[in-house]
Design a protein that fits this description.
It is a single chain. 67% of the residues lie in helices and 2% in strands. It is built from 23 helices and four strands. Strands 1-2 form a two-stranded antiparallel sheet. Strands 3-4 form a two-stranded parallel sheet. Strand 3, helix 23 and strand 4 form a beta-alpha-beta unit. Helix 2 packs antiparallel against helix 3, helix 11 runs parallel beside helix 13 and helix 20 crosses helix 23. The protein is elongated. About 7% of the residues have low confidence.
């Protein structure tokens, strides 16, 4: 390679490291023309591979495919680009196969390809499958070194930022923060503005998850101008989502809705159904607060359409969508009960915000009145949505072997949904449902030597929601023995509270099976809980 070409190729790589992809692309294209004039076809592969990597970063998948065809089969750069292309297209199994075929001695390419796969799995909410990949990436990074080169620093920053985001999304904030600080410090030392801003964005998401809304606002406000200047639409949308969440948390409903609208617009431009579905669910909180329940139901319907259009949608996402729809019906029922915090569609933004700030959380409807009966019908409809979804999601615990992951799932994912199920049963004065939920909650699992019914760990391939408003935890693997003897955590058999009664929650368990194909209880003889 001639010195000039060599230097220009390195300069293009440095530009790519600094997220100056357009300038790097133009330089690489000029190199192609010079290579053709010099007859140095042996340089073609390196230049085209660099172009393909840039196109991967910017989501130009058709251009990546062109680069793969230009390089041809049997070359390590081709396999790397193919891994990235499969991952970007959501073909995760194919990406994993190609990843396994990458030569182990190509440490840098192998680690970077693993990052691409893990990151794409997270984008599709498949955190359980991403977890072992991130562990491999972190192990490959090794201890920090002061004499690392630019390529090594870029790999570290990319890996640490991606792993930090994964940890935030899976509720592991104590792990996330050190890696995000490390990535930010290394990026700042290199003068990589966008990489630094991205670490601030992820730290902002972590702050939101920790309940520090002021720090969220500060960090995202610092990151946004740089992210917007580099025109990263996905990160821009995440900034607007976090801006909306902080404003909604402060009661500024109009400003929050405007932020959510900005996020939705960018995700529609990117054509991401999963993210469109999420932002529509988030936006539906605004009409809920304003008492415009039909508008909120319409937004959830549009969110369901977006989820239906996504080929990798999971039962878990539908369960959480149903739970949210139940929340809308619950709010509508509470409005009929005269709840003082319920919205009034005739109010303007300022009046709605003032009412939210002064509400005492009390209801005024008289039992037996027409309003009370209307509320009862709506709350029953809410229970039919929220209770089966809560039971289905809670049943996941039986297939989580790792105790820490099981605790995070129970506390951060299942518990809020079960709390909503209890609340709607209480507000509907449904004492039978309340007692059955208490009975279920008092004895939700059992140890035995018999594996749980169904396919253990089948949920591990399903998606977990990663929006900052309700960060889910990562999945663990299938159930595993914890000791000799009584060895396995599993679901309880059906519970019968009275000797002559049917097992509890029967209709809701049947709905959970019909809607989400989840067995809430084991297929065994019912246990009697009566004396």
């Amino acid at each position: 390679m001639s010195p000039d070409l060599d230097e220009d190729l390195h300069r293009a790589r440095r530009l790519a490291f600094a997220a100056e992809e357009e300038r790097a692309r133009d330089l690489l294209l000029s190199l192609l023309a010079r290579i053709a004039q010099s007859g140095r076809e042996d340089l073609l592969i390196d230049v085209v591979a660099e172009l393909g990597s840039i196109y991967l970063t910017r989501g130009a998948n058709d251009a990546v495919a062109d680069c793969i065809r230009t390089i041809g089969p049997g070359v390590r750069q081709t396999r790397f680009l193919q891994v990235g292309l499969f991952a970007a297209d959501g073909e995760h199994d194919a990406a994993a196969i190609e990843l396994a075929l990458l030569a182990p001695e190509q440490d840098h390419l192998l680690t970077y390809a693993t990052i691409l796969c893990a990151r794409a799995l997270g984008e599709d909410d498949l955190h359980s499958r991403a977890a072992p990949m991130w562990e491999r990436v972190i192990a490959d990074l090794g201890p920090p070194g002061a004499d690392s080169g630019e390529a090594d620093d870029h790999l570290l920053v990319t890996a640490a930022t991606g792993y930090g985001r994964f940890c935030v999304e899976t509720g592991q904030l104590a792990r996330a923060i050190p890696w995000l600080h490390r990535a930010g410090a290394r990026a700042a030392a290199r003068g990589w503005e966008l990489a630094t801003a991205r670490t601030q964005l992820e730290r902002g998401a972590a702050s939101w998850s920790a309940g520090d809304h002021l720090m969220t606002e500060q960090l995202v406000a610092q990151a946004y101008p740089v992210i917007a200047r580099y025109a990263r639409a996905d990160d821009v949308s995440r900034c607007w989502l976090l801006f909306g969440l902080t404003r909604m948390g402060a009661g500024a409903l109009e400003a929050a809705d405007q932020c959510f609208a900005q996020a939705e617009r960018h995700w529609r431009e990117l054509g991401k159904p999963l993210y469109i579905h999420r932002i529509l669910l988030q936006r539906s909180w605004i009409p809920i607060f304003l008492g415009r329940f039909a508008e909120a139901v319409d937004l959830v319907g549009r969110a369901r359409e977006a989820l239906d259009s996504w080929p990798r949608a999971s039962w878990l996402q539908y369960a959480r969508l149903d739970d949210h729809l139940g929340t809308i019906w619950r709010a509508d029922g509470l409005a009929d009960l005269g709840f003082d915090g319920a919205g009034d569609p005739s109010e303007n933004w300022q009046a709605a915000q003032a009412r939210q700030a002064t509400a005492l959380g009390v209801t005024y409807a008289e039992p037996g009145s027409a309003a009370y009966r209307n509320a009862a019908a709506k709350l029953e409809r809410a229970a039919d949505l929220k209770v089966p979804a809560a039971l289905a999601v809670d049943s996941v615990r039986y297939s989580i072997a790792d105790a820490d992951a099981r605790l995070r799932w129970a506390s951060r994912v299942a518990a809020p949904m079960l709390a909503g199920a209890f609340a709607v049963a209480w507000e509907a004065d449904n004492t039978q449902l309340i007692s059955e939920l208490i009975e279920y909650h008092s004895a939700r699992g059992t140890f035995s030597s018999v594996p749980p019914s169904g396919q253990p760990g089948d949920w591990a391939t399903t998606a977990l929601s990663s929006e900052p408003a309700e960060l889910a935890v990562a999945a663990a693997g299938p159930p595993a023995p914890v000791a000799a003897g009584l060895t396995r955590l599993g679901p309880l058999p059906p519970l019968r509270m009275q000797p002559d009664s049917a097992p509890i929650l029967g209709r809701y368990r049947a709905l959970a099976q019909a809607r989400y194909h989840r067995d809430v209880t084991a297929a065994e003889t019912a246990w009697s809980t009566s004396p």
